[in-house]
């Protein structure tokens, strides 16, 4: 069950990091998505926000 939840959260975070027109918008969206996934799966929202924000800012 934990692995299934992780995969769903990871897929959602990757999908949401692509939203936005500028790197700042994608970074903000990725940070929010990463924070939610980090809290739900690992109980670490700040780490999830950092990873999601970086992933969002680096996508094109």
Automatic annotation (TrEMBL):
In terms of PROSITE patterns, this protein maps to: PROKAR_LIPOPROTEIN
> What is the designated name of this protein?
YMGG-like Gly-zipper domain-containing protein
Q: Which organism is it from?
A: Oceaniovalibus guishaninsula JLT2003
């Amino acid at each position: 069950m934990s692995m299934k939840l992780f995969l769903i959260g990871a897929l959602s975070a990757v999908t949401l990091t692509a939203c936005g027109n500028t790197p700042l918008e994608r970074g903000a969206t990725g940070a929010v998505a990463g924070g939610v996934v980090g809290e739900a799966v690992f109980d670490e929202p700040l780490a999830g926000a950092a990873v999601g924000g970086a992933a969002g800012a680096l996508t094109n």
